[in-house]
């Protein structure tokens, strides 16, 4: 059994708590079957924290997130908080957590399960067997760059400002994560930016080129403009192995990649920081790539698999529980093969199951191991 590990759950808003409930069942199964022992805390974040505490994440919650071995996050936001000041909107809580934990490398795998090749909006032959890894820089770029804000000009007009900023160091550290991952995969990295338009993109391209030549000559590096990458992902996604890109392009391209797999409700992510050489600890923050899905929240129909697969990534990357992570992924595959489908991945003409029934089906598969 793996020694006691500490875990903070932050379900958040909308479908966040609904899908987190199913992930908790998997955690319970891991403990009840004697595979692991966790100390689990849970806290508010996003709109739920605004309602209770007036801020989207409290200092105490941030402190807890820094103390634990890993954080499992749901999703935040929703129309209820549309009118709160921008600085304390629910999403600001998520951005603060990522920044405070210094989790800079967001790993967003897009893998097509065999049983779902027909659920993609692309032709099955284009996506069958697809397995790409998008590495998105997560605490820099235009989401964090200064200056930012909305200012009033002398003529009374307003101007909204955000700034794309990347330093050599920020590009190198996420680049190393991408090259390291490629070494364990097909050995190919495609670096994505807009070096034809933006200086930050030009620097990104130069730094990646130098990094590959100096530290990763065994890995093949190509470059692509972000607009072309979006087109190529829809045209021929299997050409990619690892894609490394900045915060904004990574956010957008990973939602696009999600639809190749059949649904946004299937894509997990792991966001990792640097390993502290003194303690051996590496911050790990795990979340589905989808948001709080206000259009389906409260209906019991959200697909919990992205949240559960995020837990599998947590076990793999933060707790080195490779077998258990693989067991969960295999159970997901078996549930899908037996046509266990929430509405987002429905097979036309066949009944769908609810969020909790998807949880039931998954636990049944895990118990059958
Ligand atoms: N990490 C986070 O907490 C994120 C939060 N958001 C926030 O979420 C709210 C809604 O944003 P949207 O742009 O609508 O994106 P969204 O990802 O919440 O939803 C987009 C579409 O995908 C569907 N969908 C998402 N997850 C699903 C699941 N697990 N099962 C089935 N269908 C699913 C939704 O029903 C919706 O039709 C906003 O407040 C946004 O800021 C958005 C993205 C990430
Ligand atoms: C801060 C988030 C709402 C941005 C987002 O869409 C994401 O990280 O996937
Ligand atoms: Mg997003």
From TrEMBL:
GO biological process annotation, one example: L-leucine biosynthetic process
Keyword line: Amino-acid biosynthesis, Branched-chain amino acid biosynthesis, Cytoplasm, Leucine biosynthesis, Magnesium, Manganese, Metal-binding, NAD, Oxidoreductase
Binding-site residues, Mg(2+): 227, 251, 255
Pfam family, one: Iso_dh
Residue span(s) of domain Isopropylmalate dehydrogenase-like: 6-362
Site (Important for catalysis): 143, 194
Residue positions binding NAD(+): 78-91, 291-303
PROSITE patterns referenced in this protein's UniProt entry, alphabetically: IDH_IMDH (PS00470)
Binding residue positions for substrate: 98, 108, 136, 227
Protein's cellular compartments: Cytoplasm
Recorded GO CC terms: cytosol
Catalytic activity: (2R,3S)-3-isopropylmalate + NAD(+) = 4-methyl-2-oxopentanoate + CO2 + NADH
SUPFAM superfamilies (alphabetical): Isocitrate/Isopropylmalate dehydrogenase-like
GO terms, molecular function: 3-isopropylmalate dehydrogenase activity; magnesium ion binding; NAD binding
Main location: cytoplasm
UniProt KW Hydrolase keyword: no
NCBIfam families per the UniProt record, alphabetical: leuB (TIGR00169)
Function: Catalyzes the oxidation of 3-carboxy-2-hydroxy-4-methylpentanoate (3-isopropylmalate) to 3-carboxy-4-methyl-2-oxopentanoate. The product decarboxylates to 4-methyl-2 oxopentanoate.
Subunit architecture: Homodimer.
HAMAP family with a match to the protein in the record: LeuB_type1
PANTHER family referenced in this protein's UniProt entry, alphabetically: 3-ISOPROPYLMALATE DEHYDROGENASE
Family recorded in the similarity comment: Belongs to the isocitrate and isopropylmalate dehydrogenases family. LeuB type 1 subfamily.
Protein name: 3-isopropylmalate dehydrogenase
Organism: Acidocella aromatica
Lineage: Bacteria, Pseudomonadati, Pseudomonadota, Alphaproteobacteria, Acetobacterales
